[in-house]
């Protein structure tokens, strides 16, 4: 894995939400966010805030842990929120249509390690960790595609 290109400390759920809202303003179809971190690290909270920021009339955003994928219509285009925690085989991503969605939808993928070789190389990787008190979130952002240089890089400024 590449070294983080940017690192942030998020001191509250509100700071996590504010970051998601700022990033949401620049997202468009074909953008993939890979959300990593342990259970309770803040992945789903971040995803909910981002989805709400893109919805004209925010609706309930359940965790897709049991359905694997939830699809939303947003002002920026179709958004797929996938939680691959229960995925047993990466080929199931193809069956779900997730790999096609990487091309023409905004995709938020929790537990992206389950994708194995199917993870898109142009994705923005967000790795959430907690401190020992589990009140502060640390976020390491990684990317190789230049499309993220300004969009993700400005979040750390």
CATH topological fold name: Rossmann fold
What percentage of the residues does DSSP assign to strands (E)?
Answer: 25-35%
The name of the CATH superfamily reads P-loop containing nucleotide triphosphate hydrolases
Q: Which CATH architecture is right?
A: 3-Layer(aba) Sandwich
Largest sheet: 7 strands, mixed
Strand order of the largest sheet: 1-7-6-2-5-4-3
Please give the share of residues in helix.
Answer: 25-40%
What is the arithmetic mean of pLDDT? 88
Annotation, overall tally of beta strands: 7
Secondary-structure map:
Layout lengths: L5 E5 L2 H12 L7 E5 L6 H12 L14 E6 L2 E7 L7 H6 L1 H7 L1 E5 L13 E7 L6 E6 L4 H5 L6
Parallel strand pairs: 2-5, 2-6, 4-5
Antiparallel strand pairs: 1-7, 3-4, 6-7
Helix pairs in contact: 1-2
Report what the structure shows.
The longest helix has 12 residues, at 13-24. The protein contains five helices and seven strands. It has 157 residues and is of the alpha/beta class. It has helices spanning 13-24, 43-54, 91-96, 98-104, 147-151, and strands at residues 6-10, 32-36, 69-74, 77-83, 106-110, 124-130, 137-142. Helices cover 27% and strands 26% of the residues. Strand 3 (69-74) and strand 4 (77-83) form a beta hairpin. Keywords: ATP-binding, Cytoplasm, Magnesium, Metal-binding, Nucleotide-binding, tRNA processing. It is found in: Cytoplasm.
């Amino acid at each position: 894995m590449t070294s983080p290109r940017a690192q942030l400390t998020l001191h509250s759920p509100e700071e996590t939400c504010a970051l998601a809202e700022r990033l949401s303003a620049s997202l468009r179809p074909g953008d993939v966010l890979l959300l990593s971190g342990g259970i309770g690290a803040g992945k789903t909270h971040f995803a909910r805030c981002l989805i709400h920021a893109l919805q004209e009339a925010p609706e309930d955003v359940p965790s897709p842990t049991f359905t694997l994928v939830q699809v939303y219509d947003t002002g920026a285009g179709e958004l797929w929120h996938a939680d691959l925690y229960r995925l047993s085989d990466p080929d199931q991503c193809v069956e779900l249509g997730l790999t096609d969605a990487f091309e023409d939808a905004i995709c938020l993928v929790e537990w992206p390690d389950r994708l194995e070789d199917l993870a898109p190389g142009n994705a923005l990787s967000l790795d959430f960790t907690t401190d020992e008190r589990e009140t502060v979130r640390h976020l390491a952002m990684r990317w190789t595609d230049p499309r993220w240089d300004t969009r993700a890089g400005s979040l750390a400024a």
